[in-house]
Amino acid sequence: MLDLSFEPPKPKVIAGAKHDWELVIGMEVHAQVSSKAKLFSGASTEFGAEPNSNVSFVDAAMPGMLPVINEFCIAQAVRTGLGLKAQINLRSAFDRKNYFYPDLPQGYQISQLYHPLVGEGEIIVDMEPGVARKVRIERIHVEQDAGKSIHDMDPAMSFVDLNRTGVALMEIVSRPDIRGPEEAAAYVVKLRQILRYLGTCDGNMQNGNLRADVNVSVCRPGAYEKYMETQDFSHLGTRCEIKNMNSMRFIQQAIDYEAKRQIAILEGGGEIVQETRLYDPDKGETRSMRSKEEAHDYRYFPDPDLLPLEIEQAWVDDIAAHLPELPDEKKARFVKDFGVTEYDADVLTAERDLADYFEASVGGGDGKKTANWVINEVLGRANKAEVSPREIVAPEVNAAILEMVAKDEISTKIAKDVLEKHIESGRAPAEIVESEGLKQVTDTGAIEAAVDQIIADNPEQVEKAKQNPKLAGWFVGQVMKATGGKANPKAVNELVSSKLKG
Amino acid sequence: MSELTKLKIAEARDALRKGDVTSAELTEACLSAIEGAGKLNAFVHDTSEIARRQAEVADSRIKDGDAPSMCGIPLGIKDLFCIKGVPSQAASNILGGFKPEYESTVTTQLFGAGAVMLGKLNMDEFAMGSSNETSCYGNAVNPWRRGNDDEALTPGGSSGGSASAVSADLCLGATGTDTGGSIRQPAAFTGITGIKPTYGRCSRWGIVAFASSLDQAGPMTKDVRDAAIMLEAMCGHDPKDSTSADLAVPNFEAMLTGDIKGKTIGIPREYRMDGMSDEIDALWAEGRKMLEDAGAKVVDISLPHTKYALPAYYVIAPAEASSNLARYDGVRYGHRAKLSQGDGITEMYEKTRAEGFGDEVKRRVMVGTYVLSAGFYDAYYNRARKVRTLIKKDFEDVFAQGVDAILTPATPSAAFPLGMEVEDPVQMYLNDVFTVTVNLAGLPGISVPAGTDKQGLPLGLQLIGRPWEEGDLLNCAYALEQSAGFVAKPSKWW
């Protein structure tokens, strides 16, 4: 496997009134499993359906209904675990987390507290080329989502939509290895990227398909290193959990606010109370979700309706064998095989589809030039139009155009025109070049004639250029203009400079 | 007509196939017996229209020569089973008015085999009780009485309505469910046969859950042969129940040879409880002798953790129940309390559940919530699970030593008067002392009427079998039944 070397980023330091503080952050990301059916029922998971239309008897917790594990959801979670280089537990079990809420029909959520499906893994969180944080994954467990309570449709009544009830979630729990708000956002970005590569979660944060609970604490510089040495949490501060964040921007704002709030309390001689908080993006602050008296006792116990989940190593191996190439490996390969910069490799591997698109565009050609082309010509247009690159131009067209450039048939400038004309008309690049006579003039005789003509017409410029060789560019431009841009720029350059010298 | 209702399932099956009787006739006979037995309060939901329709279909199937074993046989169905379009409320007010849109797997199979449903049967609320007195319909009554004494006795529980109905010949057989003895104890109290199969034999899908890891459905019938026939129709693998076993169902009836020569029967010394009545002790000794006479080798065995079974059961069952019953919240179906101005969701939960659940259910929900709560989980729930493992191992050990079945009393006493133990829940829980071990270990257990006490009340013996060996167990029970020759019937007073 290919790996790029990297250094860890510096932890974010916040200057308090009295001294400096560092941040320690752990994340619990809830990722909705991409699956047609729910975790324990055959009901559809389609987003945006009529309220309460995707609800089976099991989801509605009718009397006597029983859950049956959806094997595909388990395969998706295993795939995710493998993608995060994590331990897959061949024996796991489901537990009930008991609490009352109208959007939780059973009165309990089926989750995995004691024996999760996936154990320890890791994520490399890229910050900038050569700088990345290795974040340890503690576990991934599979659980049911709750439904949706709607309180603002009627002044006197609340409504419940059970469409989401029972949809499979993966809760991906990190160790407290994240050291700043930017890292936290980058962690979610990277995790989302991997999940999308794997096809195990669509990562749509707006629809709530990816939500994060962020655990934040602060400590004095040096304390974290002691924790890392000993894994003893007493070196760290008391944490607060900010629930249900579904935007990278809010995650950063919430962490910033929360860290400052905690520092103010500590420097004022107070103590942090471990609690669950919510971020209010309108006010830009976090606030306590529930008081101690209302603290839930979830009374977890093994779900007696489900036998322990036992999977076979051969099944896991089969899933592993069909895992796609993941972002880190792809990026390293792009750097190594195509000679693209790490930065460009990052851009090109952001989405699996873009990476595939890029590779198809390379064809047999030059990777680095293709990278520039795709990033500058295609992505620029695609981002502006808010469509995918494929909707702008097929990768085979890129390959064809770039091949003509490589063969000196057209210049890079003409190539851009050809692309433009292709986008407008859909005509094949070769046909555009042929029919519009855009083929580069490589006949040095013809170019020489043009150069001679320009020199003859502009004696004053020739004199100036002889004094200042930088002015040769003016002649090149004139020649290009005269040849309709078709002259081979390299040949023009060479001829102009030799003629001016002569 | 009334003679027809006295038929056993096997007899009725043969008569139906011969054309001596029609299912319609049998069904009408049962329906009129039920109508005349209001005092027993065994049937709580009338489904006579369904019964007549099913009987008609059964009769044409029989005529066509397509007559499975249960075809045309009129049954009563415990109210715990969800029946499509029929009130199914687990004898609880909280499910008042609830009519499922689905049909339990067990009843689907019974109806598929041609069985006729006469009505829904009384039971303890959510199957929590040993006397049928926690029912929202009021208690069922035991058709048996002590000599000339007309004091009303309990039919036992939780399947009290099933026991009363079968014992009084209101139906040919009935479904029951058994979480800690709810089939076997009422069977013993009413002089009928009841078997709880191995956990996983019968699908739990569509049966209102009490304690998921312990609940099993089973038949309650007039004799062992009927139990074999009906059990075969009820059980089998169901992919909708993850705990259902993917095992073939043998022809249980064909295994009833009565030959138990060479079988080893264990008598567990720990089941000799302090203060056990002489009558029960004597019955147990008689049972031992009957099996010996039938050619079995009877040995004394030890199941050392027996004494911890009842407390462990009364931690695990309420723990699971407290979670299983959380869904009865007034939001989607069943009872919802009338709310006052300003009441929120918490008030809705509290009022709905306070009104909808009876005292015993509330007690168990509270006990269950307590034993699962932070700080008590290890001391209660986890410890109870460990005990459960040990109890299971006790049985595994004796089976490994070559024991084929275990003989114990079914109950510590004969049926007791209604109202006697309601005020003392712990006394009531002691009724399950011989039966809960079987549920904790997931084993099959059968209660067979084996004699009467001095006052003429039936007493039962329990046989416990190896897991999945219901066929062998039924055959042992059949041999015991033949030796015991129990034929007494309650005299009709209702």
Automatic annotation (TrEMBL), chain A:
Domain Asn/Gln amidotransferase positions: 356-500
Molecular function GO labels: asparaginyl-tRNA synthase (glutamine-hydrolyzing) activity; ATP binding; glutaminyl-tRNA synthase (glutamine-hydrolyzing) activity; transferase activity
Catalyses which reaction(s): L-aspartyl-tRNA(Asn) + L-glutamine + ATP + H2O = L-asparaginyl-tRNA(Asn) + L-glutamate + ADP + phosphate + 2 H(+); L-glutamyl-tRNA(Gln) + L-glutamine + ATP + H2O = L-glutaminyl-tRNA(Gln) + L-glutamate + ADP + phosphate + H(+)
Gene Ontology biological process: glutaminyl-tRNAGln biosynthesis via transamidation; translation
Pfam family, one: GatB_Yqey
Keyword Protein biosynthesis: yes
Listed EC numbers: 6.3.5.-
TM regions (residue ranges): none
Keywords, sorted A to Z: ATP-binding, Ligase, Nucleotide-binding, Protein biosynthesis, Transferase
First-tier enzyme category under EC: ligase
Gene3D superfamilies named among the record's database cross-references: 1.10.10.410, GatB domain, N-terminal subdomain (1.10.150.380)
Function: Allows the formation of correctly charged Asn-tRNA(Asn) or Gln-tRNA(Gln) through the transamidation of misacylated Asp-tRNA(Asn) or Glu-tRNA(Gln) in organisms which lack either or both of asparaginyl-tRNA or glutaminyl-tRNA synthetases. The reaction takes place in the presence of glutamine and ATP through an activated phospho-Asp-tRNA(Asn) or phospho-Glu-tRNA(Gln).
Subunit details: Heterotrimer of A, B and C subunits.
Family per record: Belongs to the GatB/GatE family. GatB subfamily.
PANTHER family with a match to the protein in the record: GLUTAMYL-TRNA GLN AMIDOTRANSFERASE SUBUNIT B MITOCHONDRIAL AND PROKARYOTIC PET112-RELATED (PTHR11659), GLUTAMYL-TRNA(GLN) AMIDOTRANSFERASE SUBUNIT B, MITOCHONDRIAL (PTHR11659:SF0)
Protein name (database record): Aspartyl/glutamyl-tRNA(Asn/Gln) amidotransferase subunit B
Source organism: Allosediminivita pacifica
Lineage: Bacteria, Pseudomonadati, Pseudomonadota, Alphaproteobacteria, Rhodobacterales
UniProtKB/TrEMBL annotation, chain B:
Gene Ontology cellular-component annotations: glutamyl-tRNA(Gln) amidotransferase complex
Catalytic residues identified in the record: K78, S158, S182
Domain Amidase: 25-474
A molecular function GO annotation: transferase activity
Gene3D superfamilies: Amidase signature (AS) domain
EC top class named in words: ligase
Pfam families: Amidase (PF01425)
Keyword set includes Transferase: yes
PROSITE patterns hit by this protein: AMIDASES
Enzyme Commission code(s) on record: 6.3.5.7
Reactions this protein catalyses: L-glutamyl-tRNA(Gln) + L-glutamine + ATP + H2O = L-glutaminyl-tRNA(Gln) + L-glutamate + ADP + phosphate + H(+)
SUPFAM superfamilies for this protein: Amidase signature (AS) enzymes (SSF75304)
Source domain of life: Bacteria
InterPro entries linked to this entry: Amidase, Amidase_CS, Amidase_dom, AS_sf, GatA
This protein's UniProt keywords: ATP-binding, Ligase, Nucleotide-binding, Protein biosynthesis, Transferase
Entries under NCBIfam families matching the protein: gatA (TIGR00132)
Quaternary structure annotation from Swiss-Prot or TrEMBL: Heterotrimer of A, B and C subunits.
Family to which this protein belongs: Belongs to the amidase family. GatA subfamily.
PANTHER family: GLUTAMYL-TRNA(GLN) AMIDOTRANSFERASE SUBUNIT A, TRANSAMIDASE
Function text: Allows the formation of correctly charged Gln-tRNA(Gln) through the transamidation of misacylated Glu-tRNA(Gln) in organisms which lack glutaminyl-tRNA synthetase. The reaction takes place in the presence of glutamine and ATP through an activated gamma-phospho-Glu-tRNA(Gln).
Protein name: Glutamyl-tRNA(Gln) amidotransferase subunit A
Organism: Allosediminivita pacifica
